[in-house]
Design a protein that fits this description.
Blueprint (H helix, E strand, L loop, with lengths): L4 H31 L3 H25 L5 H20 L4 H28 L6 H30 L1 H22 L12 H7 L3 H21 L2 H9 L3 H29 L1 H22 L3 H15 L3 H15 L4 H29 L5 H25 L16
Length: about 400
């Protein structure tokens, strides 16, 4: 497949957005020390960003449905760049919070419309490949953008990281301005009321609960991974950046493995395996965190499970939507992305409470217990499927994404 340059412009945007979402995890100790706040308020910078995504994706996408896609995209990249520039110049904690919320709102709408724009840039039979290429920007961000941004923040100050991400936003804006076509066909997104209709379906609510609880458990510990590695494991700042690099590669492999597992065994069996592995590795990390070699090995395994459930969850929500809300499959899939970010928001917030009350060392095992709840929800949904089997096959135009 010959990749249109306009599609590369979308991928650059996805890379920039993915970097700014997760790079904060590596910078939490640095930001907390510089702004003279404790770790829990610093962790809220993860929560509030994810909350901005969760709100922005369904609500703002519906409200901007009449706008031309190219100009909406350019406006989003301007908002994204502005948010990171505000973070760069933030005089204090409160202004940094505002900056994170602004960029989160841009993130939510971008990925809601990005898949549609990507499919309009290629032939119909290449639509899935186009979406996969665009979302590869997120994977590359985890592998390279996050550790590089962490390295910049640790050596030149955390503000320099946000300035660098702003530069990425400018590049994404310019490439989109030059190469994204002016006339892009699009269907009007579902209204907020139509989206609320999807939320009346108990089976879909159960899938969203699986997503939110599963990722909530992960981010109870992952939000505070950098301070755990520094304060408990005893690693230096530069070593933490290397560990995040290893984690990113592991995530990329785990995402592919999770997709293949869901194809081979079906979503429910695959999700039970991945959630079980995730709970186990989080529990083990409670005991290995004090040893540098064991801690790094555990984080490497953690990465393979952390996002491996994304393909299974997205496939499963589309299967359920095809049966219960066939008129709103895209809405149901989009709301699962909102559930993912709601889980991140709640997990980071809960992690902050745990750190404040009991200490960093308790976040992994408590996160594991929350993931066990996701296993129970998954088993329950599987039993409901056996009692009422879903007819028909999965729609061919499924797009799998975690954001």
């Amino acid at each position: 497949m010959r990749i249109p340059i306009a599609l590369l412009a979308l991928t650059i945007s996805a890379f920039a957005i993915g970097t700014t979402e997760f790079v904060i995890v590596g910078l939490i100790p640095t930001i907390a020390a510089d702004l003279q706040v404790s770790l829990p308020p610093a962790g809220l910078l993860v929560s509030l960003y994810a909350l901005g995504v969760a709100v922005g994706a369904p609500v703002l996408t519906a409200l901007t449905g009449q706008l031309p896609r190219k100009w909406l995209l350019l406006g989003l990249m301007l908002l994204f760049t502005l948010g990171n520039l505000v973070a760069w110049q933030a005089p204090g904690y409160e202004s940094l919070v505002i900056a994170r919320i602004l960029t989160g709102l841009a993130h939510g709408v971008f990925f809601s419309i990005g898949a549609t724009i990507a499919t309009n840039l290629v032939a119909k039979d290449k639509a899935a490949s186009a979406i996969a290429i665009m979302f590869s920007g997120l994977t590359v961000a985890l592998v390279t953008g996050v550790p590089l941004g962490t390295f910049i923040g640790q050596h030149f100050g955390w503000r320099a990281t946000f300035l660098a991400v702003s530069a990425l936003g400018v590049i994404a804006f310019i490439t989109s301005l030059l190469f994204i076509p002016r006339t892009l066909q699009h269907n009007k997104p579902a209204s907020v009321l139509q989206q609320l209709q999807v939320l009346k379906q108990p089976r879909l609510l159960l899938v969203y609960a699986m997503t939110a609880v599963g990722y909530g458990g992960t981010f109870i510990a992952f939000t505070f991974l950098a301070p755990i590695l520094e304060q408990i494991t005893g690693l230096s700042n530069s070593s933490v950046a290397l560990v995040l690099l290893v984690y990113g590669f592991s995530v990329a492999v785990g995402n592919i493995w999770g997709g293949k597992l869901a194809d081979q065994k079906g979503p429910i069996p695959a999700l039970q395996i991945i959630f079980a592995g995730l709970a186990l590795v989080l529990f083990v990390f409670t005991f290995t965190a004090a040893n540098p070699w064991f801690a790094v090995a555990t984080v490497l395994i953690w990465g393979a499970f952390a996002f491996g459930n994304v393909p299974g969850l997205q496939v499963y929500v589309v299967q359920q939507a095809a049966h219960h809300t066939p008129h709103a499959i895209d809405v149901a899939s989009g709301l699962n992305i909102a559930a993912f970010n709601l889980g991140i928001a709640l997990g980071a917030w809960a992690g902050g409470l745990i750190v404040d009350s009991w200490g960093l060392q308790h976040t992994p095992w408590i996160g594991a217990m929350v993931v066990v709840c996701a296993i129970l929800l998954t088993r329950w949904s599987g039993k409901l499927d056996k009692a009422n089997p879903l007819p028909g096959d999965l729609p061919e135009n499924l797009a799998v994404s975690s954001h």
